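Postdoc handover notes: sequence design on the structure in folder B. Input tokens:
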């Protein structure tokens, strides 16, 4: 099937990315962002089916020309975050991490504590020895759970006062994204992982519904909500799914092939190799369409596709996504990476299954 490339919806994808990044959604606290996705998709009419799974993820189904076999794509909308571990006697909070990041990467970050009664209380993540005018070890103090705390933006000096504002152990903590879209084409801020991919998939679904192009098979999209802790889309996979493609950020760093302008096709990560025939098919599609792509290996990385295979599903599994710099810290990607990923996925959903 020959699919005519339409102008990719750059502003829609990036505007959606900015919307998603600004909705707090640390793993386990994702209802608001799923509601946003549901509202956008429900407005598209009855040509798609929506269903939430018990973990809170959203399953979207597009009808194709054949019922089975089927394909599934996924992106996760949960992010790194924290939870209140301890209310300290000085009115500050100790936090526990949600997801895998270094303590250094959240030093000085503005954050929000989400209380059970719905209040949002602002604060800043700081080392306990921050002031260079007071502490000899301000620069050398180890950044760890014991030595990091949240300074709340309230006049509090004890635990009683903190609790009087409704804060309690187990309250979720989100990190302010500090997101910017720059004239150079870069988008920088927290949570490009994996809201860049989620924005691409959402706009791809909406564009597909608007155009009405036939696709060869029923195609599902899961917006998962527990990927950052290892089990986002490893369940609730519809019967009949043969191909499972995770859309998640490409990792950039020393020794890596990925950059901020490509769609990265992962051939192996910490879980092992991805399906050889599938990754070759994706590379062939990228080459045929003149897209800028890179093959790469991510040494400290696992995806929802590998989680699904590990859970026992018999799937052809793959992983692609836009290149993202400084992952799990102050991230950055480029419009080129978003476009190359969008176009690859557009052609993929119109291509025959393996």
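Designed sequence:
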């Amino acid at each position: 099937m020959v699919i005519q490339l339409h102008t990719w919806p750059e502003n829609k994808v990036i505007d959606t990315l900015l919307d998603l990044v600004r909705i707090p959604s640390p793993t386990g606290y994702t209802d608001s962002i799923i509601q946003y996705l549901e509202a956008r998709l429900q407005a598209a009419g009855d040509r798609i089916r929506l269903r939430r799974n018990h973990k809170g993820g959203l399953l979207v189904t597009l009808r194709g020309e054949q019922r089975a076999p089927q394909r599934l794509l996924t992106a996760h909308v949960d992010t790194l975050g924290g939870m209140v571990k301890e209310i300290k006697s000085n009115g500050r909070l100790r936090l526990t991490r949600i997801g895998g990041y270094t303590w250094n990467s959240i030093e000085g970050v503005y954050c929000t504590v989400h209380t059970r009664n719905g209040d949002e209380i602002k604060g800043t993540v700081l080392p306990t020895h921050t002031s260079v005018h007071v502490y000899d070890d301000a620069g050398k103090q180890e950044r760890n759970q014991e030595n990091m705390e949240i300074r709340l933006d309230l006049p509090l000096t004890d635990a009683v006062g903190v609790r009087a504002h409704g804060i309690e152990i187990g309250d979720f903590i989100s990190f302010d994204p500090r997101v910017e879209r720059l004239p150079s084409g870069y988008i920088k801020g927290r949570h490009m992982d994996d809201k860049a991919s989620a924005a691409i998939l959402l706009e791809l679904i909406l564009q597909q519904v608007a155009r009405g192009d036939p696709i060869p098979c029923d195609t599902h999209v899961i917006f998962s909500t527990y990927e950052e802790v290892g089990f986002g889309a490893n369940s609730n996979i519809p019967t009949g799914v043969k191909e499972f493609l995770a859309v998640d950020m490409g990792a950039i760093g020393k020794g890596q092939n990925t950059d901020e302008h490509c769609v990265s096709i992962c051939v192996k990560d910490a879980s092992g190799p991805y399906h050889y025939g599938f990754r070759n098919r994706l590379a062939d599609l990228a080459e045929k369409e003149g897209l800028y792509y890179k093959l790469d290996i991510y040494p400290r990385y696992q995806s929802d596709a590998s989680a699904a295979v590990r859970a026992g599903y018999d799937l052809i599994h793959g992983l692609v996504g836009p290149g993202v710099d400084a992952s799990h810290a102050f991230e950055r990607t480029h419009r080129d990476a978003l476009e190359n990923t969008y176009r690859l996925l557009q052609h993929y959903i119109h291509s025959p299954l393996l």
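Context for whoever picks this up: The two ends are 15 Å apart (CA to CA). Don't rerun without checking with the PI first.
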